[in-house]
Fold:
Amino acid sequence: MTIDRSALGFGSGERAVYATDPWTTRGRLFPEGGSPTRSDFQRDRDRIVHTTAFRRLKHKTQVFIGPDGDHYRTRLTHTIEVAQVARALARALKLDEDLAEGVALVHDFGHTPFGHTGEDALDEVLKPYGGFDHNAQSLRIVTKLERRYAEFDGLNLTWETLEGLVKHNGPLLTGDGEGTRGPVPQPILDYCEIHDLELASYAGLEAQVAAIADDIAYNTHDIDDGLRSGYLTFEMLEDVPFLAGLMREVRDRYPHLDEDRFTHEIMRRQITRMVEDVIGVAQERLREVRPMSAADVRAADRTMATFSDEMAETDRQIKKLLFSRIYRHPDIMRIRAGAAQIVTDLFRAYMTDPGLMKSHYWVDHIAGLNSQARARHVGDYLAGMTDTYALRTHRELFDHTPDLR
Structure:
């Protein structure tokens, strides 16, 4: 993919006409005065970083459960890596970097303990009560569950940051009101009743670069962690022509490189090629659509920041490799089964006796709620747990806790 380097925004400080203007934000649900030193998107980012939800990401699984080692990615390190890539893309495309960074930093707030395993288990037990969706949970956290401010629940983020959080993967509704990826989670619909996030349109480009940055980061770093764990080998990477080419390139230039440096040289090239591919595609689509405002980006019939067809095929091949060699490896599946049991056991215990949620600020109120409302509160509590807290709590309540090693 060819990049127009003359159009890049590195060091220029200039925002493109299609970027989201921080000084003309659609505002917050609860009006607040502006800051003389920070834009509203800078304030959003700062509020996100100072939450308990952000700190909890430190002890939430990305792929490998915490006890596996200190050097594997957690949700927190993954989030920081996504934010770095998102900010680089935003700068190159002359977007608002603070908004792109804020969406990247908040995008995983709703994830449960034990990665996607915990999410699947919580969704299963909550199916009779509407199910569980980590994106909807992220919205609940920043609009309701964080209780820090005197005048409102949540963080009172700007419309643009909330829109990016909810729609960074594309519209949730068609023009006819049908869900684009199945039914829209009820918490999102409920919030849009009071603060319409326009679910049938695309998000701004800042949210789009945050979304593709997530793909770039976890594709690259799950390979890195897979090699570190031994579940992946360099021979296995040869199955993906793109990765095979990168390895040949590194070997030709550095024929005697040690394994750790060899791995890093592959990873840095992978990130660079993917980032440059997205920039080239975005520039081409922007030339075709010619948006004159962020509103024009939202009204377009396509995602602007995405992979080329060739890189999208590479993305599929990498995901296939990761699923077959890591995510579905028998050792990982055994650990996943144990993690799912922990989440399921805790849900059932809390539904039976809400008083067990000793630190939950709604515990006295929950006991008198119907099962639907109680289940949602229990889901909030479980989703907020870290891996370490869920393990410790399970050991306190049950005679046997699965070994997640």
